[in-house]
Input
Amino acid sequence: MAGFFNRFLPWLGQDQRSGRPETDPAEHPAGQSGRRRFLALTALAPLFAAAPVLGAADPHAGHDGHGNPAGSMPGGHGGHGGQIYPWRNPAIALTPPPRLTGKGEGVVMTPHVPNLGYERDGEVKVFRLTAQPVEPLLLNGPPPPGSLWDRWHKAKGAMHGMDIPKKVKLWGFNGSMPGPTIEVVQGDTVRVIVKNELPEPTSIHWHGLEVPNDQDGVGGLTQPPIPPGASYTYEFTVHQIGTFMYHSSFNEKKQVGMGLGGFFIIHPADGTRRVDRDYAILLQEWFFLPGNEYVDVTSTDPNWFTMNGKSAPSTEVLTAVVGQTVRLRLANLSNMHAHPIHLHGVTWRVTGTEGGPIPESAQWPGNTVNVSPGAIRDVEFTFTHPGYWHMHCHKLHHVVNAHASVPMGVMPMGGMTMLFEVAEAGPGHGGHTPPAQGPQAGHGHAPQTAAPHAGHGQDAPAMADPDRKQPPSPPPGGQGQAMPASPHAGHNPSGGN
Ligand SMILES: [Cu+2]
Output
């Protein structure tokens, strides 16, 4: 056993096991001088995460002289009792998203989040992730006048003026929080080059993947942490199928709590498990003190809840047609809470977990599925009726936004709420075509051919939603490994859309 560790884990510092004094830092790949000091630092780091919340508006104030220069490691600060890392180190330039961000060729739609294309190096698919500070909008502001959300809130008499834009300072990948969605095919050899533009070390873990130990990404345990300003390369072959995640596994209470995660999806090599509409939704929770843009990762009582980084009413309206097969891949990267996600109007089958597909004989029916932290649930269903179908976390604290505390009035929807707009399968639809929409939809409010409620009551809102962009076409099925053109081409990779 000792031979194993000596061979693979030299940075752990053999001295910690043998009782010998610490060895020369120069012997260690990351310049780390010992595991004991290193672990002490990581244990303290979450405490410092709250400092910007409580401190002055400038996160760097008072930290002069303690900035972590690019390439240095916390262990190198001899005698320093700990390191306070700001949200961003101004000495580390933030680079634009790698050029294949938003240019993936996958079939899974991750609303608000770009996918990630790859380059080929022989048979290896090479992806690039840059971990960096980001400033996303969890809430864009009030829903556009006349939009579905606006009409809903007005119709229910919800108090207005609650939808204040929520711009926050988090950490993400390639300019996006959550990070871009990676899609590969079973059997692929995958190389991911991770660049660290954060102010502190990091490492990336492939959540659920059966990779060799030295690719597992637990910073300080299975690899040297990636210092600020440095890059690190992971490479492994995937043999599993299903929905997985990648996320930071260094100082993770803080780093995952600040947004460092994304989807890693593996399609079967034989082209099976295709559906007409395949959506991935990452569940996250946050605590912000009033008016604050820095998340307090020490809180166990979150007050903001997001799906793919957005709170309602800024969540995208999902679309489907009656008869289409729809899959939701629900993954929970929250620090604390499980999220029982519920969808109106359907009975779904739970078809997958974070461990991959569930055999058909063991799938179970439902309409609410509890997704605990670290867990993933795939559900598959078909809408029976057209219309607007409400999807939300059924912890109802999680479907309002923090400033929507209006107990004597009607609260606007917020948090983990999404809507499905489902069209009737009419002539020419055949159940396998998305609703009639396009750039022209909503101009003039002409009746849409796919209007689900035409003739059903005079208050039925028009189908057209003028603020929504054109949805992607559903992927054709049964094409084996070949993936159709990206449904995300043209999505804003900044995550701020
Ligand atoms: Cu919830």
In short: DSSP finds six helices and 23 strands in the chain. The CA atoms of residues 84 and 391 lie 40 Å apart. The mean pLDDT is 78. The first helix runs from residue 2 to 8.
